[in-house]
Amino acid sequence: MALLSARDLTLGYSDRTLVRNLNFELNEGNYLCIVGENGSGKSTLMRTLLGLQSPLSGKVLHGDGLRAQEIGYLPQQTQVQRDFPASVSEIVLSGCQTRLGRRFFYTRQDKELARQNMELMAVSDLAGKCYRNLSGGQQQRVLLARALCATRRLLLLDEPVAGLDPRATAEMYQLIRRLNREEKITIIMVSHDIAAAVSYATHILHIGDTVFFGTREEYLESRAGREFLDPQREDRMNMKVRKKKQPVRPAAGKEGKE
Amino acid sequence: MIAKLSLYLSYPFVRYALIVGILIALCSSLLGVTLVLKRFSFIGDGLSHVAFGAISVASVLNLTNQMLFVLPATVLCAVLLLRTGSNTRIRGDAAIAMVSVGALAAGYLLMNLFSTSTNLSGDVCSTLFGSTSILTLTRQEVWLCIALSLAVVVTFVLFYNRIFAVTFDETFAAAVGTRVDACNLLIAVVIAVIIVLAMNLVGSLLISALVIFPALSAMRVFKSFLSVTLCSALLSVFCAGSGILVSILAETPVGSTIVMIDIAAFAVFALTGHFLGD
């Protein structure tokens, strides 16, 4: 049976339906990328898969003995976290909170697990550093290490490269691919970055006006994919982005800080 | 000066004040970091005004043990306020402002309409600024205070890891199966208990200072949650202890003296943090 499957999911809020009759399946070891325009219901789907929100109808089924809490999550960063006084090791260790059960404190095994995951994400040497002083890429790696403490089976990543510079973005994608290939962790990633989605993912779920689910190859052949990947459309989008960003020049300031 | 101090310390009511003051300071600083980061710095103010309203009701009803009424009423309001924080219809800060002003007005009105005392403005003033109540504690009140403080500290230590998880990232905590609602409820109840306790020390208008200043000071210098928490607890105890002693020697109001020392400590920590570099 599939690790995670959606049956006739209808998502949205009481006054507005975002996605209708969504069906898809995810098997162990898959790398699923969820793409779609803003407001198409990507975050709502994400919250539903995590069990934070219930669907209007239909259901999410867990298979292969996957428990609902066994989904590791990499959320988008919040304002609170940017000035939170916490060391890297404290944050990674907090990923073990599922393992607490009825206990109040973390055991030696929990701390060992946190240490291993910090090593895997190459943040061991930052262990005593303050989270808010790290670069964007380092912060994401810390949060990934935390998610890995919660699970070794399925990771849900919400826009993992948002706000990262190009080099950190590339590193992040490499890291996620390594987790998928070498550590055999199933990945679900929500992303705007369609180019990255088709080059790394094994499966694509496109939601919006047209809904598509299938392998990467099928997506490239499909109408939804061709429209979304249409070079002219891409150009139009880039024009919009450039117009918006030019006066502020955010990239220059960011590089200086890293 | 030493002679004067030891003379004062030989009075039981001064010793009571010192014990209670230090315990209250310890408790109120513990949740400071969580409240500041959750953008609930003003919940102390809101709840203390609720407690003020509740005290007015209790004194109008002529209850012998006001605590029995004030504590549950404040806990209830704390639960409601933290609940609206996650509900978007009325944002957290607006809800706090509404409740706090409403309770303050209602309390003062009640005290005026049904006053049993001859010195009304004196009563109100001491409830708001806590000018003398700390020096008039009975033995029973001191024990109650010690018991409640112990309960607060033990609860905080036991739930430290969960409080950290919920403060740092509520969504992640919920996603991996931590019962976030239960944790927030616990935080609300503990805050309410702390507020009711602290009213004795600094009065309802100055409580926020006791809750947030130690945490903000510690956050200037320390970088991990554990060290910030420990530092703010120690700092708060130090400021309260020295504040009480200074106020005895210089005959100043207890509450405002403690707050002034807290502010001075904040200035020192902010400067230190600045020179250590971020």
Write a compact overview of the structure shown.
The complex is a heterodimer of chains A (258) and B (278). In chain A, 42% of the residues lie in helices and 21% in strands.
State mean pLDDT of chain B (0 to 100 scale): 83
Distance between the termini of chain B: 41 Å
Strand order of the largest sheet of chain A: 5-6-7-3-8-9
Give the strand content of chain A: 15-25%
How is the quaternary structure best described? heterodimer
Unreliable stretches of chain B (pLDDT < 50, length at least 5) are: none
Regarding CATH, which class of chain B?
Mainly Alpha
Helix-strand blueprint:
The complex is a heterodimer of chains A (258) and B (278).
Chain A: E1 4-13, E2 16-26, E3 31-35, H1 42-49, E4 57-62, E5 71-74, H2 79-82, H3 88-93, H4 97-100, H5 108-120, H6 136-150, E6 154-158, H7 166-181, E7 186-190, H8 194-200, E8 203-206, E9 212-215, H9 216-221, H10 223-229, H11 231-245, H12 250-257
Parallel strand pairs in A: 3-7, 3-8, 5-6, 6-7
Antiparallel strand pairs in A: 1-2, 1-4, 8-9
Helix pairs in contact in A: 5-6, 6-7
Chain B: H1 2-9, H2 12-30, H3 32-37, H4 43-60, H5 67-86, H6 92-113, H7 120-129, H8 139-158, H9 160-168, H10 170-175, H11 180-202, H12 207-221, H13 225-250, H14 254-276
Helix pairs in contact in B: 2-8, 2-11, 2-12, 2-13, 4-5, 4-6, 4-11, 5-6, 5-11, 8-11, 12-13, 12-14, 13-14
Descriptive report:
The complex is a heterodimer of chains A (258) and B (278). By secondary structure, chain A is of the alpha/beta class. Helices cover 42% and strands 21% of the residues of chain A. Chain A has helices at residues 42-49, 79-82, 88-93, 97-100, 108-120, 136-150, 166-181, 194-200, 216-221, 223-229, 231-245, 250-257, and strands at residues 4-13, 16-26, 31-35, 57-62, 71-74, 154-158, 186-190, 203-206, 212-215. In chain A, the strands form 2 sheets. A 6-stranded mixed beta sheet of chain A has the order 5-6-7-3-8-9, sandwiched between helices. A 3-stranded antiparallel beta sheet of chain A has the order 2-1-4, with helices on one face. In chain A, strand 1 and strand 2 (16-26) form a beta hairpin. In chain A, helix 6 runs parallel beside helix 7. Chain A is globular and about 50 Å long. Mean pLDDT of chain A is 80; it is low at 240-258. Chain B is mainly α and 278 residues long. Chain B has a single domain (2-276), classed as ABC transporter involved in vitamin B12 uptake, BtuC (Orthogonal Bundle). Chain B contains 14 helices and no strands. Chain B has helices at 2-9, 12-30, 32-37, 43-60, 67-86, 92-113, 120-129, 139-158, 160-168, 170-175, 180-202, 207-221, 225-250, 254-276. In chain B, helix 2 (12-30) packs across helix 12 and helix 12 (207-221) packs across helix 13 (225-250). The termini of chain B are far apart. The model of chain B has no long low-confidence stretch (mean pLDDT 83). The interface between A and B is medium-sized, with 36 and 31 residues.
